[in-house]
């Protein structure tokens, strides 16, 4: 859903810009923009992308306008800003709108600097919890980005920056079919158009490529948030549109062999459908053939956050089926598994008799020397000299829940001492 919200402002912007901006269009565009900001902080890259698209669309005429036209632009921009802020506040029920800046105890360096530069009594035209959430997210980004970040690369933890991380992540998380059609679309961007229709399609390809490239470069090489694919998801809708346009251009390019081109495109699309079917319903853990066999995925998957709790329901169903009432639980996320009806105990950093359920992120991508979990509404972190679940890395699980949780049965009858570190 968040990627879809990022495409609406772009599509509305291009449509309204071609039709000529009206006051009603400015209002609608502001609502779309507000929806994008409300659902995903990383959509702030639209602030960079939209002016760039405007200049791509207008060329020199973007600047060479009369004083009256500049005034109209200011009025319409004000309408966009008003509608944007109104939508954001309405989404939060106007809770804490216009609260004092000084009412926050900011944790991130970014907002601490803002707080020092602006008087504490300044009213903030945003919901209190939105600002608080942005502050906490910024704090996490500051600790997990740039040169101080821990990056999972080629099966090992290393200090950032790792410049090839994001291109490799992008290349391995999308299907080969989609990547192939997208690369074909890049070829037609470079190719000189032969007629007006090709010129229009090439222009659209350039705009969508610009949107995707700006977002990618900003997130990968300026913000450098090594949180996996989540901050690149806004790119995917534009890649899909570019791939579809590339497929259409390919068919036209082979004008004398249209049937052969149609068969080729059909096979590429069918391959994409087959890959999707085989990945169902474990989409978050998907990697394409560039990462090798599935046996390599656990160790080499560059995405360190592929466990979003999607298999906790499956774990509860498995426990009910096997008649297991309580387990040792090492869950990677920040929600209490008890929410799903899972009775669990905090596991020790060594073998213990019982049934263990441990997120693969902890086993194969174990954050060095720590285990964090939520218990009774509180986040707790256990630190120790070596990886908490590292002793499980060389052991074959008894069962797997989806692609994110491994089950280990250490009940009576299993020689757990032999399996220990």
How is this structure best summarized?
52% of the residues lie in helices and 10% in strands.
Q: Which percent bin holds the helix content?
A: 40-55%
Largest sheet properties: 5 strands, mixed
Q: Cα-atom Rg, whole angstroms?
A: 25 Å
Low-confidence blocks of residues: 415-421
The figure for the number of domains is 3
From N to C, what is the helix and strand string? HHHHEHEHEEHHHHHHHEEEHEEEEH
Shape: globular
Order of strands in the sheet with the most strands?
6-5-7-11-10
Verbal overview:
The protein is α+β, with helices and mostly antiparallel strands. The protein folds into 3 domains: 2-154, no CATH class; 165-291, no CATH class; 312-419, no CATH class. It has 15 helices and 11 strands. The protein has helices at 2-19, 23-39, 46-58, 67-91, 109-117, 128-143, 165-173, 176-190, 196-223, 236-253, 258-279, 294-300, 312-322, 360-364, 416-419, and strands at 99-100, 123-124, 150-153, 156-159, 327-330, 344-345, 355-359, 370-375, 378-383, 399-401, 405-409. The strands form 4 sheets. A 5-stranded mixed sheet has the order 6-5-7-11-10.
Keywords:
single chain; 421 residues; alpha+beta; 3 domains; five-stranded mixed sheet; two-stranded antiparallel ribbon; 15 helices; disordered C terminus
